[in-house]
Amino acid sequence: MLLRLRAIPGLRISENVPLAAHTRFGIGGPARWLLDASTDAALAAALEILRETGTPYTVIGGGTNLVASDEGFPGTVIRYTNASIEWEIPSDEAAPVRLSAAAGAVLQDLVDRTISAGLAGLETLTGIPGWVGGAIYGNAGAYGHSIHERVRSVRILDGPGIRILENAECEFRYRESVFKRHKDWIVLSADVKLDRGDAVKLHATAAAIRTIRDEKYPPAMRCAGSIFKNLMLADLNEAARAQVPEKVIREGKVPSAYFLEQVGAKGIARGGVKVADYHANLIYNEAGGTARELRELIDNFKQRVRERFGIELEEEVQYI
């Protein structure tokens, strides 16, 4: 198998790679092999070999929302690292600008480049870590907007072939997409539409958002941002709805942090993993934390909220 993989152009192979080095939590044991595919062809060829040989594998992106096991992964971890960002500005100033961003592009790079070019639509995503592919997969968003609002279509690798899904086919919802239910569909790129804007004003908007975000989630903090998804007020049981103060409801959603705070989550620590003193939905690796400690805290908080409010919290993070 290894000889066949090494013959693929555009594929970089690394052995016994600690996943802690490729996740924002800084947690995770070694992957037997890490494959970085820089082209569509390299990714497709590598996956074909892994499937033919029955080699266990998993596909990841930038590792922002990933909790990797302390034992690592005994098979192959593969990433699509194409980071290209391309666009054409039409002569008609009233026409939206279409842009294509590869899944391996850093989301912040995409945001920064569009702002500098005076293209509006992605500025509220500033400060969200990770790659474009992960942002599409989890429908990343903040400050009342999500990336799906700007997506025209998504280009995916579906088994041996490449196809394009229009926005509606991606089934975007709050922090959800069809890709979470079809793990074998791999995002290659997204075609997005942007409006003309004022670069100075866009910079100002992004800078204000970045200041707030960095105060809440310092760039050096080893965390995934919020651990749990917020909840739709309409989906809560009657008893839970009755306990939610109107002032905490935003755009029909109730922050998970509200429920977590009620069950005493703030400041709790387990080993090297801790909950922020100022934000009950922020768990971070303070010093030498493990995936086991993190998972124990997550499971404990889900149980507390379930017993107190009769609702089930759902993680934003994914597990290896």
Report on this structure.
- With 320 residues, the protein is an alpha+beta fold.
- It folds into three domains: 2-80, Uridine Diphospho-n-acetylenolpyruvylglucosamine Reductase, domain 2; 85-204, Uridine Diphospho-n-acetylenolpyruvylglucosamine Reductase, domain 3 (2-Layer Sandwich), CATH 3.30.465; 218-319, Uridine Diphospho-n-acetylenolpyruvylglucosamine Reductase, domain 1 (Alpha-Beta Complex).
- The protein has eight helices and 20 strands.
- Strands 6, 7, 8, 11, 12 and 13 form a six-stranded antiparallel β-sheet that branches.
- A hairpin with a 2-residue loop joins strand 17 (269-270) and strand 18.
- The longest helix has 19 residues, at 291-309.
Please trace the helix and strand order, writing H or E for each element: HEEHEEEEEHEHEEEEEHEEHEHEEEHE
The number of helical elements comes to 8
Distance between the termini: 23 Å
Structural class: alpha+beta
Summarize the structure.
With 320 residues, the chain is of the alpha+beta class. 26% of the residues lie in helices and 28% in strands.
